[in-house]
Write a structure and sequence with these properties.
6 copies of one chain form a homohexamer. Chain A is mainly α. Chain A has helices at residues 3-7, 11-39, 44-59, 66-80, 84-96, 101-115, 117-138. Chain A starts with a helix and ends with a helix.
Chain lengths: 139, 139, 139, 139, 139, 139
């Protein structure tokens, strides 16, 4: 890396980081913070890039509302079917940004058409766990 | 199969079919009809099941608005990355039910976070083709 | 939804449901019933659609014998590698409809050629669990 | 590599190769030979391993009939949805070893349940092309 | 977005962009520039994020040499099997940063073990095209 | 199978097996042996084919060094995201053949660009477990 590059004070970086961290907390709440904490002793730079890029750059863009973004993410992770922990984080996130439980169930059901019934079933059972966790937390 | 089953007049079937066909036309327009037509000489029963189940049963449910459904489908097909023709049909569909081009681009961009940049790039280029087709059609 | 649609008595629906339920029990036995029961408090409509569409519409068709259908499903779920619970249900199902354990092992082994050794290995270990469960049940 | 290893005459290798080549021709016919020919100038060793392992080792095993093997392969490649050329080769293969066109269509339709409608649709259109090619060849 | 955020001059951003652009050209050459150009009229912001994040943040890190990075990318895109244009760009890239054609063929062949023969075959045929393109360019 | 085929003494087979077994132990150590042992009562032939083909045929080829091979495998299994046990075996393997922990983390981080952040996150957490296991073993 160019030493000149390194000498530039990371002013904007810290702005992206701060904006991303705020957005992460707004969307994912405690679950998002836990992911970042779990990365601290294995890949702290990756935690920083996740905050800066995913949350500071992408989620902060005004072109699409957060509810639509989370419907898309729940749909995609349901269809991919290989990222169970992240699917649960984003079912929480969808509820955090204004989706109802009924809407979350519905977008998962629709994925049966595009990715098959097993993908939808496994995601529905993840949603069942998330709804139960939130039910316990609300009491 | 039980002959008794066969003897039941397909009253409700025809209702599901009619409801599904209407919904298919509302969402997918001509592109949806073309898919059905292309199935006629290879698997006409599959065309019927697609209309009855996907459109008559799932898309007709009132629990989620069509715009949210299509955002979820564009996100999922972008992430899966292995169904180019259907992705294009659903980018059209998203625009048909009220998404702006900017919103379509945005949900695809977000998939870079969840399924990688190649998946997002290929979907953006599909969107570019769809937007061009519609631009030509509108002139 | 058109109120007229709703007024049609669900005669055929109940036939599809009954036919599907019977087929589900024939193929998946207790494991299939458990899936339906687990959906009751999260997405009961999805359970109904699964019975009506997957079992009432598809599995009930006479064009292919159940043994061939289950060989195809075990092969596909092995290759996809992201639906472990459904894979186990369908290894049971394959044995229920007439496959030998040796045939199940063989179709899974063949998937090493089409989806790689990890996919085949994980499916073989699922088969090992299923065979053990059935061994215990038979005693 | 151990020089001793290299000194062993490849007696059994040539047996595996011959057995695999014969099996490849039985199953895939001309389409299989074309794949091998296309590898000659890029990865001839890979062509040899494909013949020896996939056809000499796996397909030659007596534990499962060829028709069941091809039903499994068509199902798996339909579900994966990312290997169009191989899917067409194996739709040909399924027909070569005794499946009817109706059975091929049926196992593909069933994949809508396990991998979604887009996967099944794209595979049905591949089948349509294969059936047309064979129709022309038979005339 | 916080107006304060917007007021910060994009000093570091432009450094990340410049570093990324330089890295993109080093690795992907003309093919990389073409991808960026193709995004100009559909999603210019995505082109910027691709340069800044993928190339400015990730590829610029000194923790792994470029040759190892490209071996990993060719392996991954071969295994995923759903991103043909990007696979070709990265076969070029692997050769640009010091892999031999023999090494590229070898890492692709190895993917037969982890993702099946169809994935490896399609990637070998992509490599064949890339090698031919470069052969023509060199003359 | 041709009886003549069966009569050929398995001289070369046993050479491939011996070479593969030695290579398996060199790369995967105890973890590889455990996989083979776990196959003994369900599919012993599959264990043999895995040793002969994957290790005796592929890994024994001199065209690519073992460190590059394992970087490719860790990248591919991270991207596929559906083979957690094999991913852990190959993170061990990468370290066994000369990768540093930092290099393993880095190739996984890079997969965020090609397969998304969830795939990279889950693989980083697998690496964390592997590093901890080795830390305990070294004490």
């Amino acid at each position: 890396m160019n030493p000149a590059t390194e000498a530039v004070p990371n002013v904007t970086e810290s702005v992206r980081y701060a904006r991303g961290w705020e957005k992460l907390r707004e969307i994912d709440g405690k679950a998002g913070e836990n992911v970042i904490a779990a990365l601290a002793d294995i890949a702290p730079d990756f935690a920083r890039l996740l905050i800066e890029f995913a949350f500071g750059d992408i989620y902060s863009r005004p072109q699409l509302d957060l509810k639509s973004r989370e419907i898309g993410v729940v749909a995609a992770l349901t269809a991919l079917g290989n990222a169970a922990p992240q699917l649960k984080v984003h079912i929480h996130a969808a509820l955090n940004v204004g989706c109802t439980q009924e809407e979350v169930v519905e977008i998962i059901m629709q994925m049966a058409v595009y990715a098959g019934f097993p993908a939808a079933l496994n995601s529905l059972f993840a949603a069942k766990e998330v709804f139960a966790e939130r039910g316990r937390a609300e009491r």
